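Message: I would value a second opinion on how I read folds in token form. Give me a protein, with the fold worked out from its sequence. Write it directly below this note and I will take it from there.
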Amino acid sequence: VKDEFKQSEGDPIVKSRLRSLARDRARKRMMTAVPRATLIIANPTHFSIALKYVRDEDSAPMVLAKGQDLVALKIREIAREHNIPIFEDVALARSMYKQVSVDNVIPSQFYQAVAELVRIVYSKKAERRQIS
């Protein structure tokens, strides 16, 4: 019976390993996208979401990466290395983590909150340009 199951459904160990490899590849792809982010929304201990928005190019902010626990810490670490602003908002980070998908634009229910953060990022960039 075991052999018949393996023949029809595939070896569970092999399937598990393939899923694990796919998750690892997806995680690495996400991490390479973080340096292109405009900002990071984080819950200080559990969640991080990397968003990209380029005015006059993007219709809405795009989710480049999202992570929980160790992956979230890694996203914030990469963001710090690349001077990407990190905004701590527990409720926003938690709800976005549950509802957004990587490589998709954010749902419209988050537009107002994220627009305010993007406005802050752009105004700080403008201030830095004036000082330089």
Summary: Strands lie at 39-43, 47-52, 62-68, 86-88. The longest helix spans residues 12-33. The radius of gyration is 19 Å. The chain has five helices and four strands.
